[in-house]
Specification:
By secondary structure, the chain is mostly beta strands. It has one helix and 17 strands.
């Protein structure tokens, strides 16, 4: 429940539960993961988009921890001046709790204009992969998946996560211990794989 409507107006997509009963929900508009602790009725949020650091021309007007998708770039002496970019994360990736961590599948691209590149040294950012989140500290680390463009379903299998890529018609086998993809299954072109289910012997995939 959320009687204070703290999470009102958010674009939540997928949810997972850890062994302490906390709920983790990815928020697609702002690029965040929200944690809800039912025992104390408290929401905590953390960004799951990588922060641009080391560039004095780049700032986060509302704070990186609150709106990591809102970025302002000093493009002077260009005609745009201080240019504010409002990005979002139109990602349909899942969330699972595996091997003591929360794993979020995410795809996003930050496309800056030519003045940002020329006057502020900012380059476009593209990330397709998994974000590992510590359920207690909410510390994050980023693990890109080569060849991925539109990650969708996630199915735990011990310390393994099976992940579909809807656009590439692939299934990735990700080992959370080595934090690497150990197998890639290529399906027929146009299969559009979405969610998965495992019965211990067989992996079932919903295709569209």
């Amino acid at each position: 429940s959320d009687p204070e409507n703290v999470a009102g107006g958010q674009d939540f997509y997928a949810i997972a539960r850890d062994t302490s009963g906390n709920l983790f929900i990815n928020e697609r508009d702002n690029g965040e993961l929200w944690r809800y602790s039912p025992s104390i009725d408290t929401w905590t949020r953390t960004p799951i988009m990588q922060q641009i650091t080391g560039n004095a021309d780049v700032t986060y007007p509302d704070g990186y921890s609150v709106k990591p998708d809102l970025i302002r770039v000093d493009e002077n002496p260009g005609s745009h001046g201080f240019h504010t970019y409002q990005f979002n994360v139109p990602s349909f990736g899942g969330v699972v709790f595996v091997n003591g961590k929360v794993w979020v599948a995410i795809d996003y691209e930050l496309d800056f204009d030519s003045q940002a590149e020329a006057n502020a040294g900012v380059t476009d950012i593209s990330f397709h992969g998994l974000v590992k989140v510590d359920p207690s500290s909410l510390a994050t680390s980023f693990h890109s998946i080569s060849g991925a463009t539109n990650l969708r379903g996630m199915e735990p299998d011990g310390n393994i996560i099976w992940i579909t890529d809807q656009s590439q018609s692939k299934i990735f086998k990700f080992d959370t211990t080595s934090e690497t993809v150990t197998q890639t299954i290529t399906l027929s072109a146009g299969s559009n794989p979405r969610e998965l289910s495992l019965d211990g012997s067989n992996l079932y995939v919903a295709l569209n």
